[in-house]
Amino acid sequence: MKMLLLFFQIYISLNIFLIKAQPAYPFWICQNDSTYTLNSVYRRNLDAALTSLPIINTGFGYFNSSAGQGTDKANAICLCRGDVDTNMCQSCLRDAIYRLTNTCPNQTEAVIYYEFCLLKYSNASILGTNDMSRDLYELMNDNTFHNITQFNGFLYPFMNKLRGEAAAGTSFLKFAMDNTTGPDSYTLYCLTQCVPILSEAQCNDCLQYAISQLSSCCDGRVGAIVLMARCNIRYEIYEYDIHPAILPPPSGRVPTPSSQPSPRVPSPPGKDSSGRRRNVIIITISAVCAIVIASICIFILLRRKKLNLQKKDNTMDISTIESLQYDFGTVKAATNDFSESNKLGEGGFGSVYKGSLQNGQDIAVKRMSKDSGQGETEFKNEVMLVAKLQHRNLVRFLGFSLEGIERLLIYEFMPNASLDHFIFDPTKCALVDWNRRNNIIKGVARGLLYLHEDSRLRIIHRDLKASNVLLDEEMNPKIADFGMARLFNLHETHGRTNRIVGTYGYMPPEYVIHGQFSVKSDVFSFGVLVLEIIAGQKNQYFKIKGKSEFLLSYAWKSWRYETASDMIDPALMIESSSLQEIIRTIHIGLLCVQNNVVERPTMASVVLMLNSSSFTLQIPSEPAFFMQSSTPQTTSGSENHNQRSSHSSGKDASISDIVAR
């Protein structure tokens, strides 16, 4: 308890120091040119745009979103400082959305600036206007250099150098930050940044305009910041490190540039600077000591927490989960001694049998292969994983059984088997109309979103496909088979493996080629599944007009040339009212299978797109494994549930087509 009190005192002291040394400078502008009412169409569009904004991002701190059409269209962008990490960026964005909508409750256009991010929304094009002064905000230090001419002769060339570096950046990040030694041996820290979707010329022009403002607002100042929605610049004679938290804006009236407090910085070299420099050194040393002590306290606390979690996890060892363990004899009797007549399917890691317990409950039993060298690992992985998962779109895990070399997994029984039994069957496909297929797509999306973001651990399935989507008596989808899944802590986003597992045709290129996987790997598999559900054919065995095609390539070309209706399963007998919805779903599927990992949406974004017809979709780029010509696909064993494929590099690519549960 004493340690916690000590840590709390250090934490408060440290934050007081940081607030004094580097205040966040929140400033907002409520444009009063036009307003909206609370029940207006624009208000609804603005809410939709701001709600989706945090998940529509490039992965490099730039977010943009829009909703609606015409004069009621709401556009919103956010840009985080280029050196700010993802968590801090998201935190700043969330705070900005809350504060700006409350500070400017009726204005159709408003902007807010923090030290780490900016947010602007408008009913007009945000980046299309050349009126850069509309959002201009300048902040300067009170102190000035004694030799202003000498300082300017040093500052402007260095700022222009960074201007060129930022403008030459990529479409994901246009940011440059560097430091240099000034004439009197002080260090000058500068940064320049543009919204990344600006062209090099547009970025260059915006930064040039920002730099030109320094002579009128901040000539000779030891520090200055020029902020605009399109770009921003900053220079200081101290290092502006990233803060541990986003500081709230001051209460009261909206501050003006002249009344906004300036950052406290060392005086410029010259008269009366030695005393202040000494004070800064003392404060810095004190802060470093506080940080070291706080770090030690945090380390001890985290270590204890980790040990407690490990102790808790150890109590979840398979042999001690008595409430989930079934007697092997009971399961054996329920499946009629694992008879062939009870067999539902077979995959790379075992067979699945239907069973009936004495109380009349039907179950599905996965019997792990006795000769599988990976069986023990896969078994433990699946038990420890699915025992903690609860979602209506995930198959429900009932328990397990162990006896000698026998390892059994018990699940709820799915009377309608797996999705592939319907959409790929020339007779049964007529039983799943568009409404059912659409509900299946949305249900699978919700299940993946739970695995990626809402479960206690971030989970990547790594083997999502039609045969691993089971259907209950009402044709509701449930994702199954977690033997290949990988677990991550919530702050982890990706991983690498030397053993490639999954099913060819559903695996993204970065995984097949480099062994890299992330939540975007599941997004790719989901996109393939969506296109298969609509086409009623398998990805690598797609045929159209008597010719073999690669489904992803054909879907992209058809969507591009506005002939996407050609790929829709004829069994659907589409009504005109549903055709537009199906083509939009094809569009979403193509966004998921793009070759570039960054361009693929997250599952949170996919769920939003599937449930909001007003949500504006991006233009998809060519899908992975794009093929120009009609080429028969022969690389897969997915037609045979008992096969295993081997990659040319020697990495195993397991085919795990376990069907009904």
The amount of beta strand, in percent, is: 15-25%
CATH-wise, what's the superfamily of the largest domain? Gnk2 domain, C-X8-C-X2-C motif
Gyration radius, to the nearest Å?
30 Å
Number of strands: 25
Largest sheet, spatial ordering of strands: 1-4-5-3-2
CATH domain class name of the largest domain? Alpha Beta
Determine the number of helices (DSSP H or I, runs of at least 4 residues): 15
Quick check: average pLDDT?
78
The first-to-last residue Cα distance is 51 Å
- CATH A-level architecture of the largest domain: 2-Layer Sandwich
Query: What class do helices, strands and sheet pairing give?
Result: alpha+beta
- Helix percentage range: 25-40%
Counting structural domains, the number is 3
Major sheet description: 5 strands, antiparallel
Note poorly predicted spans. 1-23, 243-275, 310-316, 489-493, 629-661
> Would you tell me which CATH topology of the largest domain applies?
Killer Toxin P4, Chain A
